[in-house]
Amino acid sequence: MTARDLYRTVRLIRRFEERAMEFVRSGEIVGGIHPYVGQEAIAAGVCAALRPDDVITSTHRGHGHVLAKGADPARMLAELMGRETGLNRGRGGSMHAADFGLGILGANAIVGAAGSIATGAAWAYRRQGKDVVAASFFGDGAMNEGMLLEAFNLAALWRVPVVFVCENNGYATTMPVASAVAGSITGRAQAFGMPAFTVDGQDPEKVLAATTAAVARARAGRGPTFLECTTYRFDAHHTFEHRTRLNYRSTDELSTGRSRDPVEIQGARLAAGERAAVEAEIEALLDAAAGFAMGSAHPDPAAALEFLYAGVRP
After folding, report:
1. How far apart are CA 211 and CA 25, in angstroms?
2. Among candidate residues 265, 206, 201, the one with its CA nearest the CA of residue 231
3. By C-alpha distance, which of 32, 81, 97, 25 is closest to 298?
4. pLDDT per residue over 37-67, tens digit each?
5. Neighbours of 250 (CB within 10 A)
6. How far apart are CA 184 and CA 62, in angstroms?
7. What whole-number distance in Å separates Cα of residue 239 and Cα of residue 29?
8. Of 186, 258, 267, 276, which residue is 20 to 30 A from 200 by alpha carbon distance?
9. What residues are paired with 165 via a beta bridge?
10. Taking Cα atoms as reference points, which of 214, 100, 228, 229 lies closest to residue 161?
11. H or E element: which one contains 153?
12. In what order do the strands lie in the sheet with 55-57?
């Protein structure tokens, strides 16, 4: 994985999210999204450490994870618009995008639930004799969810090859982490007997290095690792905030948090010409993605029950 590759990923995620917010404002994406702006280094670094056959589970703020694992931006954007050509034929939307062929076992709107799915999947692969590793993303707010703590327990007890990635952006929606989590986040993970590390989640290369070590440990049969990636969400928890103007972060805090931009940190590692070439490539890619999504059909309402019940097939 080169510096250029990492920059391409963080830039793709940033510009995808910015364009998605434009489509929210225009009404092409109904219901809004949870922007990943500011946290791109985590998805880029973690997924760069994985093999194509490794798997991930994601969150309600999952676009970055899905793109970093290799999903087609055109089909992802079509999914957000609820189009038939989307990753899940418009049925999953922003919070449930999946592509099993790429090892993307799904974003998940239930806070903390994806950790259990990742643990179960990794355990199943190991039972099949495969050395597949699962990486599970979740936020700091999930550290108070019992199902995630149960996943920690089983993963450590059974030495499951999973990497738990806590994206600590300081807030569970609007609640500061200091008001919600007793003790330390890494301390909770360590209590289950797994190694836990705090990583600079604004630097893609530092995330990649930490994840590479965790993946190697998991693949060698030594069990799970917990990574707390400290980061900052530059934009709203959800785009509804653009209208409601919730006031829970000061101007000074926002300015300080945005001062370490993962796109700029990684972009500074490239020569100006190389960086410009990547940026031009991404804009062309997203122009094509927007055209593809906008030109795609909406699902037929008569097919609303497809995939909903076991006895209903397309």
Report:
1. 36
2. 201
3. 81
4. 999 999 999 999 999 999 999 999 999 999 9
5. 9
6. 25
7. 11
8. 276
9. 137, 227
10. 214
11. helix 146-157
12. 55-57, 134-139, 162-168, 225-230, 196-200
